[in-house]
Amino acid sequence: MVNAAATGVPNSEFTLTVGARTDTGKVRANNQDAVRVWTDLPQTIPFAARGYLFAVADGVGGNEGGEIASALAMDNLFHTYYSGDTNDIAAALKIAVNVANDAVFEAGESQAEDRKMGTTLVAGVIRGGALTVANVGDSRAYLFRGRTQAAQITKDHSMVAEAVRAGQMTAEQARTSRQRNIITRALGNRHNVEVDIFEVDLLPDDVILLCSDGLYGTLEEPALKEVAQTVPPPVAANQLIDMANAHNASDNISAVIVQVTREGQPALQALPSAFQQNQLPTERIATVAPATRGTPVFAVIAAVVVLALIIAAVLLIFVFHVVKF
């Protein structure tokens, strides 16, 4: 079991509160998951310029192979990302994930064929008012917004997810399929890996959840959303994993939760209705711009009425003058 928590971490747009936990669960002999957040790093890192990085990895491999793979992926991801020289978050994440992939691949090459290793990886970076997510595999990133909005930001790279997208299987069938744990993309399988990138414009009170399939495969999305939004992230990470264990999760379980608030704004309050949207697309979730201030309607109407009265008065004077003379 690993816990990490930090509160009140400011950036240029928001205050970020983070909680993270990974747990072996009740079935596996060892924990092949790994979690890491920016608070694990020296505070001398220029987070304001580079952003705040957090990630979840779910390793696969014989004996301790998966555990080694997920740890290698995390080490290389964080080191490469924060030692890079580009300010392009998406490009920096892609580079870091590919370096992590190479490290896992090379480590796996020294293993016997039946002990090859690999790992999923989902990572997020918050800089300013934007979230950038990189994903390989079936670990997930969710965005919870307002009372009713929930979106899975990432797209699973798994056999059943591809079948659902192709219309060959329903989501419910995928959830109970024996093939649900077969992933189609992972770090360590080959020298080059394709990395999905998603970008999200953040709003106050948004909550981001990164998790392994041990969590979302056990608890339904509404339960994930309710807990993530109603208690502080460090407590929520613990509570979700305890709930998954209580529901007999069959895998390792990991969660990283980040809550976004404005500086000085009370945490965990409902979003104003003006910020609520009917739909949250996964490729890019745009911030709802505040309405532009203009002249109030009642002021325009009053001005028109006054102008009409002035014109009427002038006409009456003119008519009276003509009749009188």
Task: Please give the structural blueprint.
Layout: E1 2-10, E2 15-23, E3 33-37, H1 47-50, E4 52-61, H2 65-83, H3 89-109, E5 117-127, E6 130-136, E7 140-145, E8 149-152, H4 159-165, H5 171-176, E9 196-201, E10 207-211, H6 213-216, H7 221-230, H8 233-246, E11 253-261, E12 284-285, H9 297-324
Helix pairs in contact: 2-3, 7-8
User: How many distinct helices?
Assistant: 9
List low-confidence stretches.
Answer: 268-304, 314-325
Just give the CATH class of the largest domain: Alpha Beta
Number of domains: 2
Q: Alpha-carbon distance between the termini?
A: 102 Å
Mean pLDDT: 81
Structural class by SSE content: alpha+beta
CATH fold naming of the largest domain: Phosphatase 2c, domain 1
Q: How is the largest sheet built, in terms of strand order?
A: 1-2-11-10-7-8
Rg calc: 26 Å
Residue share in helix: 25-40%
CATH architecture of the largest domain: 4-Layer Sandwich
